[in-house]
Amino acid sequence: MTFATVSDAGPLIHLAEIDSLELLSAFDTLLIPETVYEEVEMGGIPDGLSDLSSQLIEADEKRIESKELDPGERAALAAAKEREVVLLTDDLAARETASDTGVEVHGSIGVIALGYGRGLLDRNEAASLMRALQRETSLFVTEAVVERGSPDAERAVTERGGSIDALNTFTMDRL
């Protein structure tokens, strides 16, 4: 089974803030819409982004009608829906819209959980990175999410063999 995902800017930025972009290698295929790349580029390309095995893609943001989402979020969601792959976003409105349209969605915490499940991190490293997301990034993560996320992530990914299916029981919506 191939693990493919489309990312909006949020996880790229937040994982870069904790020097953990390499965790995106837990996915076999990382797709980045050109619109998202341009958004990230405006803030300065994070170190490590060019080292990732990723593919820039065209995506028609107009296919998603939502005034709450920015063009990058709409492009990423449109691409994920069209290609039937996971959407990575940390934006609440984007997660809700994705769920409403039947697109599987996860965020930066889910990427850390998958990294743990696929053996890229040990338990302590995963817990430390979840705390770093809370304390060292522009992502708003409550203490309750971190406290619930660490054991839930560990249990979900180990019980299901570290697969993307493990993330189905560990979504941002649950937290």
How would you describe this protein?
The chain has helices spanning 9-17, 34-42, 71-83, 92-100, 108-117, 123-136, 143-159, 164-167, and strands at 4-7, 29-33, 55-57, 86-88, 105-106. It is α/β, with parallel strands linked by helices and 175 residues long. Helix 4 links the parallel strand 4 and strand 5. Mean pLDDT is 81; it is low at 150-175. Helix 5 packs parallel to helix 7 (143-159). The protein has a five-stranded parallel β-sheet with strand order 3-2-1-4-5. Helix content is 49%, strand content 10%.
Topology:
Elements: E1 4-7, H1 9-17, E2 29-33, H2 34-42, E3 55-57, H3 71-83, E4 86-88, H4 92-100, E5 105-106, H5 108-117, H6 123-136, H7 143-159, H8 164-167
Parallel strand pairs: 1-2, 1-4, 2-3, 4-5
Helix pairs in contact: 2-3, 5-6, 5-7, 6-7
Quick structural gist:
It contains 8 helices and 5 strands; from the N terminus they run βαβαβαβαβαααα.
**pLDDT averaged residue by residue:** 81
Helical residue percent?
Answer: 40-55%
Separation of the first and last Cα atoms:
27 Å
**Number of beta strands:** 5
Residue windows where pLDDT falls under 50 for at least 5 positions:
150-175
**Compute the gyration radius: what is it?**
15 Å
Structural class: alpha/beta
- Percent strand equals 5-15%
Number of helical regions? 8
Biggest sheet: strand arrangement: 3-2-1-4-5
SSE order: EHEHEHEHEHHHH
Shape: globular
* Largest sheet properties: 5 strands, parallel
